[in-house]
Task: inverse folding
């Protein structure tokens, strides 16, 4: 999995998100700004489709600390994703309460490994919803 993750970033970038090595669930390339540096970061991530929205789970493979991209989304929620050959602008929202519980159930249905990761850690694994940005009124 570590090798696939390292190779997915350049492979997805060159193929515009069409090719990747990780075939567990759908994968996208997240382009976000660093929380402290504001430098652009690209991270290949598994995602869960939810209608027109995208769900991201900050499991870090069951690591005790949340992945850095979670802090990046908390500080800079406007991101770009490359998936299915298209680049899309999205706005990330960290979910809580019933919204998180619902999204978590969808994520576990898509990839049951998330439950195993949650059993390994003391922290609550963050879940983000990525929506299309609102169109401003003219």
Result:
């Amino acid at each position: 999995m570590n090798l696939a993750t390292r190779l997915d970033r350049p492979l997805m970038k060159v193929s515009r998100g069409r090719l990747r090595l990780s075939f567990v669930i759908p994968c996208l390339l997240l382009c976000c700004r660093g929380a402290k540096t504001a430098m652009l970061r690209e991270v290949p991530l598994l995602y869960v489709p939810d209608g027109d929205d995208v769900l991201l789970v900050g499991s870090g493979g069951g690591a005790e600390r949340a992945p850095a991209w979670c802090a990046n989304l908390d500080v800079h929620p406007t991101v770009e994703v490359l998936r299915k050959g298209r680049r899309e602008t999205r706005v990330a929202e960290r979910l809580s309460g019933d919204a998180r519980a619902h999204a978590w159930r969808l994520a576990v249905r898509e990839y049951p490994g998330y439950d195993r990761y949650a059993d390994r850690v003391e922290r609550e694994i963050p879940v983000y919803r990525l929506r299309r940005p609102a169109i401003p009124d003219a």
In short: DSSP finds four helices and seven strands in the chain. Helices lie at 2-14, 68-75, 97-110, 113-120. The longest strand covers residues 86-94. The two ends are 47 Å apart (CA to CA).
